[in-house]
Every structure is written in C-alpha cells, then in structure tokens.
Design goal:
Blueprint: H1 7-13, H2 17-20, E1 32-34, E2 37-39, H3 58-64, H4 69-75, H5 82-96, H6 101-114, H7 119-129
Antiparallel strand pairs: 1-2
Helix pairs in contact: 3-5, 5-7
Length: about 130
C-alpha cells in the first residue's frame, strides 16, 4: 500500500506513476570467481540479462580486494564517479577486514603510486577513506 492505496487502486488512479518509478544501477566488473580462484579481469562470457545480484560476504570482499587490481580497474573506468567509488570500495574492504590499518596503508601506498602526479587528488581520497 502506498499512502493508503492498494497497488491496483494506484494503477487505476495514476497509471503513469509506474513509468516514473524505476530502479536503475550500473555495474563495474572488477573480477570474477572461477571456482575458488579470483580472476582480476572480465569473465569470458558476460552475465546473463536479468541475473540476480547478491552482496559479497566478508570472505569474498577480502579475496576481491586483496590486491590493488580493483583500484586500477576503478581508476581506468569512464563515466563513473571514480573518487567516490574508490572511497566507498576501500571503506567496504576495510570493514570486511575489521578495520585492519595495515591493509589501508598498503592500499594507500598503491594509490600513491597510481596518483603520483596528482597529490591533491590522492590527499582528497585518502582523507575521506579514514
């Protein structure tokens, strides 16, 4: 029910509302699982359309973010908010590791190598991660 109306009533009263209410999201594939091994590339075949998406558990997040490959994939992408995605991904990975400071230092060093000519950007990203 939406504001005291059933879905059928809503369809009759405001049929255009379902054209406005849509959920859309974009996916950036950074790696895939080939059995037990994580491959940091695109899969051989794309996922089928309308495939269900599930949130990774902590173990999967740790595997996917164990190396800096995911950072490089994000940074080389286009048409996405790169810095915001970096920050969010690093926070999520750090949470999966129970706030492991050694991990974030290692990823910070990787970002320093990647952003070696852009100190302001590096500083901005790192300040917002911690």
């Amino acid at each position: 029910m939406l504001y005291g109306m059933t879905m059928d009533e809503l369809r009759r009263e405001q049929p255009h509302i379902f054209e406005l209410l849509k959920t859309e999201f974009h996916v950036l594939i950074t790696a895939y699982s080939d059995g037990e091994k994580i491959r940091f590339s695109l899969p051989l075949l794309p996922p089928p359309i309308h495939t269900f998406i599930y949130e990774c558990n902590s173990n999967e997040v740790e595997k996917l973010t164990s190396e800096d490959f995911f950072l490089r994939t994000i940074i080389s992408s286009t048409n996405i908010p790169i810095d915001e995605l970096l920050i969010s991904s690093l926070r999520y990975a750090q949470d999966a590791r129970k706030k492991d400071k050694d991990y974030i230092v290692r990823m910070g060093k990787s970002l320093a190598r990647i952003f070696k000519d852009d100190y302001e950007r590096l500083s901005s990203v790192l300040r917002r991660v911690v």
